Amino acid sequence: MNIWTTICQQQDILPGCGIAALWQGRQIAIFRPTSTGPLYALDNIDPFALASVLSRGIIAEHQGEFWVVSPLKKQHFRLRDGLCMEDAAFSVDTFALRCIEGVIMISAANNISD
């Protein structure tokens, strides 16, 4: 059974942007690549720089997938699963999100997005 926690309102995240949220003692980066598409949640810590910056990265599209580019060392992390394009050993955790009536909720279950 998943336990869902409200994080924010969908309107709090502009399309094409990300935000940082504190959830269960972790910094989470939440992304809204488009106005109508899915939302994504990753660990906000850039594993190369060990800094909480991924939510401030640039969202890019590559081969039909959305990625975030770290603002510090420019590595790419796939929003769907946290895979690091440059070195899979540095991939980041992902978290399940859902949006019901404009309310974004997060769960500890990985790789699920409603």
Explain what the structure shows.
The chain has about 110 residues and is an all-beta fold. The chain is globular and about 35 Å long. It has a single domain (about 5-105), classed as 3-layer Sandwich (Rieske Iron-sulfur Protein), CATH 2.102.10.10. The protein has a six-stranded antiparallel beta sheet, with no helix packed on it. The protein has strands spanning about 5-10, 15-25, 25-30, 40-45, 45, 50, 60, 65-70, 75-80, 95-100, 105.
In short:
The protein is mainly β and 114 residues long.
SSE blueprint:
Layout lengths: L4 E5 L7 E7 L2 E7 L7 E4 L1 E2 L4 E2 L5 E5 L2 E5 L6 E3 L15 E7 L2 E5 L7
Antiparallel strand pairs: 1-11, 2-3, 3-4, 4-10, 5-6, 7-8, 8-9, 10-11
For the record, the CATH architecture stands as: 3-layer Sandwich
Mean pLDDT: 93
CATH superfamily: Rieske [2Fe-2S] iron-sulphur domain
C-alpha Rg, in Å? Answer: 13 Å
Instruction: Briefly note the structural class of the backbone.
Output: mainly beta
Q: Please give the alpha-carbon distance between the first and last residues.
A: 16 Å
CATH class: Mainly Beta
Give the helix level as a range of percent.
Answer: under 10%
* Total count of helical runs of at least 4 residues: 0
Low-pLDDT parts are none
What is the multimeric organization of the chains shown? single chain
Query: In the CATH scheme, what's the topology name?
Result: Rieske Iron-sulfur Protein
Q: How many beta strands in the DSSP annotation? A: 11
Order of helices and strands: EEEEEEEEEEE
Shape: globular
Side by side, the strands of the main sheet go 1-11-10-4-3-2
What can be said about the biggest beta sheet? 6 strands, antiparallel
Residue fraction in strands: over 45%
Counted up, domains total 1
